[in-house]
Write a structure and sequence with these properties.
Number of strands: 0
Largest sheet: none
Shape: globular
Strand content: under 5%
Helix content: over 70%
Distance between the termini: 19 Å
């Protein structure tokens, strides 16, 4: 384990963020590849596949709820040299993830038709969405055990294997998708099948790694018998973090419902725009993910000044990056949308979304960083509350405005920017209150050495 309580805090954040960003880059490329190939099939196909994005955030919420708790408990056990308990936590997390994945997969496979028809702008878009979800929902199920195995490896400090597997699965998906979509004429179903095969082989690679004789963590089915107390311990840590992703999913469903009357072009433009935004957010999310362990180690060591310094260093780096990306979206929004689909209507709606929503990039970046510092300090409830407030401040005005004469989609994006700004203010207030409560002032003679690092 790398000691993050010594040396320059900013260097630790950048060093960790660089490696995390590499992993996230290939994860993002995974989805952009699908979007690029689907874009060749027309705006209805893009809009139909975009419906799966909402489910992705639900999966992220559920897997985050388990993986954050599992990572925390496994790493703590390994730190105490209690490998038996670490292995028990790992196996319990696997059992919980598979059970949750089965329930999720069965539920959404059963309602995929009703879900697509409720949110799609027209019948063609709905049918294409159903074709995609028929194969993509099983792929989402496989994400549950995959994420837990990756979380256990991170807890052990092994970041190399998850990255290598991620790269291999992305390359496989990129190679397989066009063959299935156009060579075998499976269209959107081919893109989903390519994802299912790639994720499935990724799971197999992880399983083989854990089954090797030298693995410090092994599968023991005898330890898969549910232990509610241990499940509760994992979920108490992870649920608030997962709740933030769940609120993002609710936000996306609300937006799709509001913009449905504008047709498939609007839904496709938003679907491409949100994927572009997610890609642009990659650097600041990596910085935020890096801030959590740096803040956590220093908080555990009682080095309050270094915890504060972690936030300020990460927030400053994030702000610089996000301001540059804001300028990019103001200069060339249409080009980024046109790369995936050249339909004039799609480009018009998507570029307007980017041009307006980019004004919340700075605020969103700092929100990500502050939420991660909260995780490092072991309290994930305040940022969840701020996210819930943001959703309320967006949903109510957006629905009211959408029923007014002369309503335009840009009104929704303006409301979104305003709600994120309020979320930033609340997050910063809550974080500084947390600093005041948990990072008590120390005598100058004691604070000076920590500050000097």
């Amino acid at each position: 384990m790398k000691d993050l309580t010594k040396g320059p805090v900013g260097r630790h954040v950048v060093s960790l963020a660089t490696f995390i960003a590499l992993t996230m880059f290939f994860q993002t490329l995974y989805f952009l590849a699908d979007l690029y190939f689907v874009g060749r099939l027309g705006k209805e196909a893009v809009a139909g596949v975009g419906l799966a994005g909402n489910l992705m955030f639900i999966v992220l919420a559920l897997t985050q709820s388990m993986s954050v708790g599992a990572t925390s408990l496994v790493s703590q056990s390994l730190g105490r040299k209690d490998r038996a308990h670490a292995q028990l936590v790992f196996n319990q997390a696997m059992a919980l993830s598979i059970l949750t994945g089965v329930v999720f997969g069965a539920l959404f496979f059963a309602v995929r038709g009703a879900y697509a028809r409720r949110l799609a702008a027209d019948a063609v878009t709905a049918e294409l969405g159903i074709d995609y979800l028929t194969w993509f929902v099983p792929a989402l199920f496989l994400q549950f055990p995959l994420v837990i195995m990756g979380a256990a490896l991170r807890a052990m400090g092994d970041m190399k294997l998850p990255t290598l597997i991620q790269i291999a699965t992305v390359l496989l998906n990129i190679a397989l998708a066009p063959v299935l979509m156009f060579g075998f004429e499976l269209r959107v179903a081919g893109a989903a099948i390519a994802s299912l095969v790639a994720i499935g082989l990724g799971c197999v690679a992880f399983v083989l790694y854990f089954r090797r004789p030298a693995s410090p963590m092994r599968f023991h089915l005898a330890e898969w018998t549910p232990q509610p107390r241990l499940w509760g311990a994992m979920l108490r840590i992870g649920l608030p973090a997962g709740g933030e992703f769940a609120l993002v999913s609710v936000y996306m469903v609300l937006v799709y419902d509001i913009i449905r009357p504008f047709g498939a072009a609007a839904q496709a433009g938003f679907g491409i725009g949100i994927r572009v935004v997610q890609s642009l957010f990659l650097p600041t999310v990596a910085i935020a993910f890096a801030a959590a362990p740096v803040a956590g180690q220093n908080y555990g060591a009682g080095l309050g000044p270094r915890v504060r310094q972690t936030f300020y260093s990460a927030a400053t780096t994030s702000a610089v990056l996000m301001l540059a990306l804001t300028l990019l979206c103001e200069i060339a929004p249409a080009g980024m949308i046109r790369f995936f689909n050249a339909d004039p209507g799609v480009v018009a709606f998507g570029s307007e979304y980017l041009r307006i929503t980019c004004w919340n990039f700075l605020a969103s970046g700092i929100v990500f960083v502050s939420s991660s510092v909260f995780q490092g300090m072991g309290n994930t409830l305040p940022p969840l509350g701020a996210s819930a407030l943001r959703l309320v401040l967006f949903a109510i005005p957006a629905y009211v405005v959408s029923h007014q004469p002369g309503f335009q989609l840009r009104h929704v994006w303006y409301i979104s920017v305003a709600s994120v700004t309020v979320q930033l203010v609340v997050n910063l207030w809550l974080l500084h209150r947390e600093f005041a409560k948990k990072l008590a002032p120390v005598p100058a003679a004691e604070a000076q050495p920590a500050a000097a690092t």
